[in-house]
Amino acid sequence: DVQLVQSGAEVKKPGESLEISCQGSEYGFSNYWIGWVRQTPGRGLEWMGFIYPGDSDTRYSPSFQGQVTISADKSISTAYLRWSSLKASDTAIYFCARREWLQSPFDHWGQGTVVTVSS
Amino acid sequence: QSVLTQPPSASGTPGQRVIISCSGSSSNIGRNIVNWYQQLPGMAPKLHIYSNNQRPSGVPDRFSGSKSGTSSSLAISGLQSEDEADYYCATWDDSLRGPVFGGGTKLTVL
């Protein structure tokens, strides 16, 4: 079965950097887009960006452009979401999810990574 | 605050039919297919309806989706206790050049 397994919960201080990961298995990782989605109680689900691991084509939501960096290492079937300087407002659950092409649905999701940013 | 508008809550008794609405605009629902996700408490969202009205394998036929103009609906007939969850509509937005979501509807089975 297709699986996306995310790294574990993180507790960080404002200003710290962080990278979370999403490892795919049981499918051709290079051939599907991986998206990152943020979930907060106040703003619900928000798309952050996509990456196509096959050629590292990356697209960002305007709301998140410059705030995070999305990357992937297709040799280990893993996508990453990175912050260089966290803010308290980054506290959220982050999901990775795959889609076959840009306009198709997210058909498989990771379990989510809880990120807490607090001084 | 979400691009797509859903009612925050819906409810029904076992066996009833419930409809959850999702309203968008010409740049999103008006031009693109709609998908619905079910999120059980403490879990990741899961694709429940795709391409407006298609059910992935394993989703009961009690669930159906529809789209008309810039709106979409998720109908659940023969409501069961295990249907209690948050439901999100989603589609592509041509202006954003990315997917957009509704704010979610919390379905309660009374």
Gist of the model:
The complex is a heterodimer of chains A (119) and B (110). Chain A has 119 residues and is mainly β.
Descriptive tags:
heterodimer, A: 119 residues, mainly beta, four-stranded antiparallel sheet, B: 110 residues
Radius of gyration of chain B: 13 Å
Main pleated-sheet profile of chain B = 6 strands, mixed
Helix content of chain B: under 10%
Spatial shape of chain A: globular
Largest sheet of chain A: 7 strands, mixed
Oligomer: heterodimer
Class by alpha and beta content of chain B = mainly beta
- Count the strands of chain A? 11
- Parts with pLDDT < 50 across at least 5 consecutive residues of chain B: none
Integer average pLDDT of chain A: 97
Count of discrete alpha- or pi-helical segments spanning 4 or more residues of chain A: 0
Beta-strand content of chain B: over 45%
Characterize the structure shown:
The complex is a heterodimer of chains A (119) and B (110). Chain A is mostly beta strands and 119 residues long. Chain A has strands spanning 3-6, 10-12, 18-25, 33-40, 44-52, 57-60, 69-73, 78-83, 92-99, 108-109, 113-117. In chain A, strands 2, 4, 5, 6, 9, 10 and 11 form a seven-stranded mixed β-sheet that branches. In chain A, β9 (92-99) and β10 (108-109) form a beta hairpin. The N and C termini of chain A lie far apart (40 Å). Chain B is mainly β and 110 residues long. In chain B, strands 1, 3, 4, 7, 8 and 9 form a six-stranded mixed β-sheet that branches. In chain B, strands 2-6-5 form a three-stranded antiparallel β-sheet, with no helix packed on it. Chain B is globular. The N and C termini of chain B lie far apart (28 Å). In chain B, 39% of the residues are buried. The chains are: A mainly beta (119), B mainly beta (110). The interface between A and B is medium-sized, with 24 and 26 residues.
Topology of helices and strands:
The complex is a heterodimer of chains A (119) and B (110).
Chain A (H helix, E strand, L loop, with lengths): L2 E4 L3 E3 L5 E8 L7 E8 L3 E9 L4 E4 L8 E5 L4 E6 L8 E8 L8 E2 L3 E5 L2
Parallel strand pairs in A: 2-11
Antiparallel strand pairs in A: 1-3, 3-8, 4-5, 4-9, 5-6, 7-8, 9-10, 9-11
Chain B lengths: L8 E4 L5 E6 L10 E6 L6 E4 L13 E6 L2 E6 L8 E9 L4 E4 L3 E5 L1
Parallel strand pairs in B: 1-9
Antiparallel strand pairs in B: 2-6, 3-4, 3-7, 5-6, 7-8, 7-9
